[in-house]
Amino acid sequence: MRAREREVLQLSLTPDGRLAHPAAVEALEEQLPRATDCFVFCHGWLYEQTEAREEAARFFALLDTALRPLGDRVVSLRLAIHWPWKPFAEPTIGRQSAGDQVPPGLTGALGDLARTDPGLLGRLLAALVEAEVPLGPEEELELDALVRQVRDGGRRGSSMLSPLHALSFWLMKRRAGQVGERLGREVLAPLLTMRGDRAPRLHLIGHSFGAKLVASTVLGGLRPESLVLLLAAFSAFAFADEVPGTKGAGFYRRVVTDQLVAGPIVVLRSDHDRALGTLYPAVTWGDQVNRGTAPGRFGHAREVVARSALGAAGARGLAAPEFDLIDVQRTGVPASGVVNINGSRVVTREDWLIGAHRDIYHDEIATLVCLAAGLLKGGPTGARPRPLSPFGRP
């Protein structure tokens, strides 16, 4: 592979979703005419710009290996998205001790306020939360639970996660969606639409909150061939026909019903992802069950919705089939619709507190991206190139 094809372009975004370096689009425009396929990768949170580039390069190196059997049939353009993850202020100069569980983005102004005047912080958090507007029924259930956490914040004590943690999580998830939609609407969709039939096939890959970002670019006007969501940190009911406990469809349901993705929407989950299996329920629902506040309006169905993350439970509330990540190397994936992939036999590497949440760098996952893209198909001995169509395309 030529060095030019191995290059990873990076689009860095400001906190409000604008391009931090507009000149990067010029490089993208220059390479688009030469590419058959454009792969867009977005990281999760807690990555600085350099780290995001390195993680994208690591993922694309695996993708290069998976694409190698296709030879010159695929000329890939590799685009990494870096988005600002800090929910509040920059960290203070003094670093927290190793035992401090407050994440870096929370050690700014609100983190200081939490230590010096928790009462004032509680009133400020309540005002912030009550001003939020849910974008879908699943968000409304999460927001209702967050309001209760903030109001009850001074009496919780037993939880390792404060209302400030929960609000940080909510804001980062919301920002990922807003930034993604703006990126699609103002940058990527116009750029690709302008090329018409000469545009490369587009494949979107997102990890954690980055999965919400790339899903939202579709709402912003992008029309990808495939959408791969790796351990996605948003609601398992986001694509649901009807969110349990409500009368509404999931916020991203339109992506499915309007066929905004030409091929499959692939959801990778793992039983070993503690960030989504344990921490996500804690920040979206808190201690309400243990405190006896779940009955009635906050009943079981609503609890399940608020506590369930896409990357832990898979896509729920619709008839999405599930396959094993190792098995699909032989069987392939369906050509369209939402597909759950159980990666629990591969995504197993443990990190402190978050489990396998960052364990996405595997040959099997890179091959999964190519299967979803329609470039490879399953075979008895593993994935292999898909035959060319009469038009010379896989």
Chain-wise SSE layout:
Layout: H1 3-6, E1 8-12, H2 23-31, E2 37-42, H3 49-67, E3 76-82, H4 109-116, H5 118-130, H6 137-151, H7 163-193, E4 201-207, H8 209-219, E5 226-230, H9 253-257, E6 264-269, H10 274-285, H11 300-307, H12 310-313, E7 322-324, H13 328-331, E8 337-342, H14 363-372, E9 376-377, E10 384-385
Helix pairs in contact: 3-14, 4-5, 5-6, 6-7, 6-11, 7-8
Features:
two-stranded antiparallel sheet, 14 helices, 10 strands
What does this structure look like?
The structure is a single chain. This protein has 394 residues and is of the alpha/beta class. It has one domain (3-87, 168-385): Rossmann fold (3-Layer(aba) Sandwich). Helices cover 39% and strands 12% of the residues. A hairpin with a 6-residue loop joins strand 9 and strand 10 (384-385). Helix 3 packs across helix 14, helix 6 runs antiparallel to helix 7 and helix 7 crosses helix 8.
Number of domains: 1
Sheet with most strands: strand arrangement: 1-3-2-4-5-6-8-7
Write down the overall mean pLDDT: 85
For the secondary structure, the number of strands is: 10
Overall geometry comes to globular
User: Helical segment tally?
Assistant: 14
CATH class: Alpha Beta
CA distance, first residue to last residue = 19 Å
Q: Give the percentage of residues in beta strands.
A: 5-15%
CATH architecture classification: 3-Layer(aba) Sandwich
Output the CATH topology. Answer: Rossmann fold
Order of SSEs? HEHEHEHHHHEHEHEHHHEHEHEE
Largest sheet: 8 strands, parallel
Radius of gyration over all CA atoms, rounded = 21 Å
Range of helix content: 25-40%
